[in-house]
Design a protein that fits this description.
Blueprint lengths: L2 H4 L17 H10 L2 H5 L18 H26 L6 H15 L8 H13 L1 H10 L3 H8 L3 H12 L12 H7 L4 E2 L15 E3 L4 H11 L7 H25 L4 H11 L2 H15 L11 H26 L1 H5 L14 H15 L3 H27 L11 H7 L3 H12 L6 H14 L3 H11 L4
Parallel strand pairs: 1-2
Helix pairs in contact: 2-5, 4-5, 4-12, 4-15, 5-10, 5-12, 6-18, 10-11, 12-15, 12-17, 13-17, 14-15, 14-17, 18-19, 18-21, 18-22, 20-21
């Protein structure tokens, strides 16, 4: 791989912007900020669904933080690349902008209720009756696995490359460089293997509906089926942010106290944990000889989050340096943070999340509710999708037609467009995808409210 190809600023549909002071990758960031899918993230769960506490993160605040950390990691990395002569002057600006955009949009495809929503969609397709219908309707294994292994990352690509209809069906029409760096996973659904040595092949990276687009991206950027180098920086930023922030949010919600967190970390007694705790104390001292004794838990947790992110960013950058040649040759199969000197810190924070944050009663209750909501909605909307005319408006005299009429006009338009195009995909594939597109486009509150309306509050 080489940076000239990797930073390909062309788009599937070329546009002109006379007198624009921005480079193309900065235009990607700006059009993403103003897009509807990004706005919807403010009402999608990060960890705690339907959270009322204003200080606790939504998927939007998480994405903004990932974007910020990804930009910082990219700035540090690009400076190093410039010093080595790996990139030309000006390309550092491109690297920073791509990382910031991918950090912002990396979770756009997530359905309501976070990862529990993804599980609910997969569970619906794995039901005996649905899977039987899938296998009867779709003969190609990738098409079948697109639904049985439904994945939010692949839906993110579909959203920005196809669904967000503006002037045509090119989605947000982002540059090839940005689309390439967005691809955290590179396998098709039928080739994805959760036990693969190469992390990029552990989950589906794209659906059959975007296979041609993925091929265009790979040819334009020269990555083949390897990850784009910037993708490693964005992945690290995502891991760093959620590991530190989830613990902070749990303290703010009162799931546990800062003393509980401090005790768990102190018991770990590793260099990276000590570095983060020492940095936290320096932040709280704020130039004073001693830390005040009356500092609230919220402030301690926020200071620790700042310290932990700093320690993990520095460690991840060092791995990017040491693994750079393998990354550029498409041979690096790992991830920056787990291989870094901060791996112990990350492991401790992940353990706190798994054992204390994610299994709280309120979270589990809401996730179970979300599974019921999504399953019920998919039952109804599959009836609508199964009979939706490939041209024209649905007939609302029958129940199925009423359900079809509730689909967003945008998603109906996309469905009818691709059916009319007579792509290589079966019409039934587009019908199944209409359901997942609509469900994934819902916010947590909208899904819950619509379910209550349709099921009389049950």
């Amino acid at each position: 791989m080489n940076w000239t190809n990797l930073l390909n600023a062309k788009r599937r549909r070329q546009t002109t912007s006379p007198g624009d002071h921005r480079i193309e990758f900065e235009r990607d960031f700006d059009r993403s900020v103003f897009s509807t899918p990004v706005k919807r993230l403010q009402d999608k769960a990060q960890v705690f669904p339907l959270e009322q506490h204003d200080a606790v993160r939504t998927r939007l605040t998480h994405s903004l933080e990932v974007s910020s950390v990804a930009r910082g990691l990219a700035t540090r990395s690009a400076k190093w690349l410039l010093e080595r002569g790996e990139i030309a002057a000006g390309q550092d600006r491109s690297i920073e902008a791509i990382a910031a955009t991918c950090g912002l949009i990396h979770d756009l495809g997530n359905p309501p209720f976070g990862h529990a929503g993804e599980d609910a969609i997969r569970a619906w397709f794995m039901r005996e009756d649905t899977e039987k219908l899938l296998r009867k309707s779709l003969k190609n294994e990738q098409q079948i696995q697109d639904f049985l292994k439904f994945e939010g990352n692949a839906q993110s690509l579909r959203l920005v490359a196809t669904l967000q209809v503006l002037a045509d069906y090119s989605g947000l029409n982002l540059t090839f460089g940005t689309l390439s760096a967005l691809g955290k996973y590179v396998a098709s659904s039928d080739r994805a293997d959760g036990e693969a040595a190469n992390r990029a092949f552990r989950k589906p990276g794209y659906f059959a509906s975007e296979a041609d687009i993925v091929q265009q991206i790979r040819e334009a950027t020269g990555t083949g089926d390897a990850r784009h180098p910037i993708c490693y920086l964005v992945e690290a930023a995502d891991d760093i942010v959620y590991l530190a922030a989830d613990v902070e949010d749990a303290v703010k919600k009162g799931v546990f106290s800062w003393r509980d967190v401090n005790d768990a970390l102190t018991n770990a007694d590793t260099d990276s944990v000590r570095s983060a705790l020492e940095f936290q104390v320096r932040i709280l001292k704020a130039g004073r000889p001693e830390m005040p004794s009356d500092v609230d838990d919220d402030i301690k947790a926020s200071a620790f989050r700042t310290a932990a992110i700093s320690v993990m960013v520095e460690a991840a950058f060092k791995v990017f340096q040491s693994r750079y040649d393998a990354i550029m040759q498409g041979q690096y199969e790992g991830a920056l943070l787990p291989e870094s000197d901060a791996a112990d810190l990350a492991k401790c924070l992940r353990k706190l999340g798994v054992t204390r944050v994610y299994p709280t009663r309120s979270t589990l209750t809401l996730e179970l509710m979300g599974r019921k909501v999504i399953g019920d909605l998919m039952d109804i909307f599959w009836e609508g999708a199964a009979t939706l005319p490939s041209l024209g408006e649905p007939k609302t005299s029958a129940f199925a037609g009423k359900a079809a009429a509730l689909f967003s006009a945008n998603y109906r338009r996309v469905f009818q467009h691709f059916v009319a195009e007579k792509t290589s995909l079966p019409e039934e594939y587009h019908r199944f995808q209409l359901v997942t597109d609509y469900i994934c486009g819902m916010t947590d509150s909208f899904a819950k409210r619509l379910h209550a309306e349709l099921f009389n509050g049950r």
